[in-house]
Protein backbone atom coordinates (compact mmCIF):
# COMPACT_ATOMS: atom_id res chain seq x y z
CA UNK A 1 0.00 0.00 0.00
CA UNK A 2 1.22 3.43 -0.86
CA UNK A 3 1.14 6.52 1.30
CA UNK A 4 -1.67 7.87 -0.88
CA UNK A 5 -3.76 4.79 -0.15
CA UNK A 6 -3.27 5.30 3.60
CA UNK A 7 -4.27 8.95 3.30
CA UNK A 8 -7.36 8.00 1.31
CA UNK A 9 -8.34 5.35 3.86
CA UNK A 10 -7.86 7.89 6.67
CA UNK A 11 -10.07 10.39 4.81
CA UNK A 12 -12.81 7.78 4.52
CA UNK A 13 -12.57 6.94 8.24
CA UNK A 14 -12.69 10.61 9.18
CA UNK A 15 -15.66 11.10 6.85
CA UNK A 16 -17.60 8.20 8.38
CA UNK A 17 -16.84 9.34 11.93
CA UNK A 18 -17.75 12.93 11.12
CA UNK A 19 -21.06 12.00 9.51
CA UNK A 20 -21.98 9.58 12.33
CA UNK A 21 -21.12 12.06 15.09
CA UNK A 22 -22.83 14.89 13.25
CA UNK A 23 -26.00 12.86 12.86
CA UNK A 24 -25.88 12.02 16.57
CA UNK A 25 -25.49 15.71 17.47
CA UNK A 26 -28.42 16.71 15.25
CA UNK A 27 -30.64 13.90 16.56
CA UNK A 28 -29.86 14.67 20.20
CA UNK A 29 -30.37 18.40 19.69
CA UNK A 30 -33.75 17.95 18.01
CA UNK A 31 -34.87 15.37 20.56
CA UNK A 32 -33.96 17.59 23.53
CA UNK A 33 -35.52 20.64 21.90
CA UNK A 34 -38.77 18.70 21.43
CA UNK A 35 -38.63 17.52 25.05
CA UNK A 36 -38.00 21.04 26.42
CA UNK A 37 -40.79 22.56 24.34
CA UNK A 38 -43.23 19.84 25.43
CA UNK A 39 -42.33 20.39 29.10
CA UNK A 40 -42.89 24.13 28.64
CA UNK A 41 -46.27 23.52 27.00
CA UNK A 42 -47.32 21.35 29.95
CA UNK A 43 -46.60 24.24 32.33
CA UNK A 44 -48.95 26.46 30.28
CA UNK A 45 -47.10 29.69 31.06
CA UNK A 46 -48.58 32.60 29.09
CA UNK A 47 -47.06 35.64 30.80
CA UNK A 48 -46.00 38.28 28.29
CA UNK A 49 -47.70 36.73 25.26
CA UNK A 50 -49.82 39.08 23.13
CA UNK A 51 -53.61 38.83 23.39
CA UNK A 52 -53.88 37.34 19.88
CA UNK A 53 -51.61 34.45 20.93
CA UNK A 54 -53.62 33.87 24.13
CA UNK A 55 -56.85 33.68 22.11
CA UNK A 56 -55.26 30.95 19.97
CA UNK A 57 -54.35 29.01 23.11
CA UNK A 58 -50.62 29.48 22.66
CA UNK A 59 -48.20 29.13 25.56
CA UNK A 60 -44.55 30.01 26.03
CA UNK A 61 -42.48 27.42 24.18
CA UNK A 62 -39.64 29.30 22.45
CA UNK A 63 -36.40 30.81 23.70
CA UNK A 64 -37.51 34.35 22.82
CA UNK A 65 -40.85 33.98 24.58
CA UNK A 66 -39.14 32.47 27.64
CA UNK A 67 -36.63 35.34 27.76
CA UNK A 68 -39.41 37.94 27.48
CA UNK A 69 -41.45 36.34 30.26
CA UNK A 70 -38.40 35.92 32.51
CA UNK A 71 -37.47 39.57 32.05
CA UNK A 72 -41.03 40.58 32.98
CA UNK A 73 -40.98 38.39 36.09
CA UNK A 74 -37.60 39.86 37.06
CA UNK A 75 -39.07 43.35 36.81
CA UNK A 76 -42.05 42.34 38.97
CA UNK A 77 -39.80 40.57 41.48
CA UNK A 78 -37.61 43.62 41.82
CA UNK A 79 -40.72 45.66 42.63
CA UNK A 80 -41.20 43.38 45.65
CA UNK A 81 -37.58 43.92 46.68
CA UNK A 82 -34.63 45.07 44.57
CA UNK A 83 -32.38 42.30 45.95
CA UNK A 84 -32.66 39.22 48.10
CA UNK A 85 -30.72 41.01 50.83
CA UNK A 86 -33.20 43.89 50.74
CA UNK A 87 -36.05 41.38 51.01
CA UNK A 88 -34.60 39.90 54.19
CA UNK A 89 -33.74 43.33 55.66
CA UNK A 90 -31.04 41.80 57.81
CA UNK A 91 -33.29 38.99 59.00
CA UNK A 92 -33.80 35.41 57.94
CA UNK A 93 -35.99 33.94 55.25
CA UNK A 94 -39.48 33.19 56.56
CA UNK A 95 -41.55 30.89 54.31
CA UNK A 96 -44.71 31.91 56.19
CA UNK A 97 -44.15 35.55 55.18
CA UNK A 98 -46.22 36.11 51.98
CA UNK A 99 -43.75 38.69 50.67
CA UNK A 100 -40.83 36.27 51.08
CA UNK A 101 -42.81 33.43 49.53
CA UNK A 102 -43.95 35.50 46.56
CA UNK A 103 -40.39 36.68 45.96
CA UNK A 104 -38.95 33.15 45.95
CA UNK A 105 -41.74 31.81 43.74
CA UNK A 106 -41.02 34.60 41.26
CA UNK A 107 -37.31 33.81 41.47
CA UNK A 108 -38.00 30.13 40.75
CA UNK A 109 -40.18 30.90 37.73
CA UNK A 110 -37.69 33.45 36.45
CA UNK A 111 -34.85 30.92 36.68
CA UNK A 112 -36.97 28.22 35.04
CA UNK A 113 -37.67 30.47 32.07
CA UNK A 114 -34.07 31.65 31.73
CA UNK A 115 -32.86 28.04 31.85
CA UNK A 116 -35.39 27.05 29.19
CA UNK A 117 -34.16 29.86 26.95
CA UNK A 118 -30.56 28.81 27.51
CA UNK A 119 -31.34 25.15 26.87
CA UNK A 120 -33.10 25.94 23.61
CA UNK A 121 -30.12 28.04 22.56
CA UNK A 122 -27.74 25.17 23.32
CA UNK A 123 -29.86 22.72 21.33
CA UNK A 124 -29.75 25.10 18.37
CA UNK A 125 -25.96 25.36 18.66
CA UNK A 126 -25.59 21.57 18.79
CA UNK A 127 -27.83 21.13 15.75
CA UNK A 128 -25.59 23.61 13.90
CA UNK A 129 -22.42 21.83 15.02
CA UNK A 130 -23.88 18.50 13.95
CA UNK A 131 -24.83 19.87 10.54
CA UNK A 132 -21.31 21.24 10.11
CA UNK A 133 -19.87 17.82 11.00
CA UNK A 134 -22.11 16.10 8.46
CA UNK A 135 -21.12 18.56 5.73
CA UNK A 136 -17.44 18.12 6.66
CA UNK A 137 -17.85 14.35 6.41
CA UNK A 138 -19.39 14.72 2.96
CA UNK A 139 -16.48 16.97 1.97
CA UNK A 140 -13.95 14.41 3.24
CA UNK A 141 -15.77 11.71 1.27
CA UNK A 142 -15.55 13.78 -1.92
CA UNK A 143 -11.84 14.37 -1.30
CA UNK A 144 -11.25 10.66 -0.73
CA UNK A 145 -13.13 9.72 -3.92
CA UNK A 146 -11.20 12.34 -5.87
CA UNK A 147 -7.97 10.98 -4.40
CA UNK A 148 -8.94 7.43 -5.40
CA UNK A 149 -9.82 8.45 -8.93
CA UNK A 150 -6.52 10.30 -9.19
CA UNK A 151 -4.63 7.24 -7.94
CA UNK A 152 -6.35 4.93 -10.41
CA UNK A 153 -5.70 7.35 -13.30
CA UNK A 154 -2.01 7.58 -12.35
CA UNK A 155 -1.82 3.77 -12.11
CA UNK A 156 -3.40 3.41 -15.57
CA UNK A 157 -0.98 5.95 -17.02
CA UNK A 158 2.05 4.17 -15.59
CA UNK A 159 1.18 0.91 -17.34
Number of strands: 0
Which structural class is indicated by helix and strand composition? mainly alpha
For the termini, the CA-CA separation is 17 Å
> How many separate helices?
5
- Low-confidence regions: none
Task: State Rg.
Answer: 27 Å
Reading the helices and strands in chain order gives HHHHH
Query: Which band does the percent of strand residues land in?
Result: under 5%
Can you give the helix content as a percent range? over 70%
Overall residue-averaged pLDDT value: 92
Account of the protein in words:
- The protein has 159 residues and is mainly alpha-helical.
- The mean pLDDT is 92.
- Helix 1 runs antiparallel to helix 5 and helix 3 (63-80) packs antiparallel against helix 5 (98-158).
- It has helices spanning 3-43, 51-55, 63-80, 84-88, 98-158.
- The protein has one domain (3-158).
- It is built from five helices and no strands.
Task: From the structure above, extract its key features.
single chain, 159 residues, mainly alpha, 0% strand
Element layout with pairings:
Blueprint: H1 3-43, H2 51-55, H3 63-80, H4 84-88, H5 98-158
Task: Give a brief rundown of this model.
The protein has helices at 3-43, 51-55, 63-80, 84-88, 98-158. Helix 1 (3-43) runs antiparallel to helix 5 and helix 3 (63-80) runs antiparallel to helix 5.
Amino acid sequence: MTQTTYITAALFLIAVASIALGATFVYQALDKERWIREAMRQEEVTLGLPQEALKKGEVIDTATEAQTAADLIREHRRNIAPTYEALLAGGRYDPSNPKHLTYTQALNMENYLYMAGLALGVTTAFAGIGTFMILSGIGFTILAIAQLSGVSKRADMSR
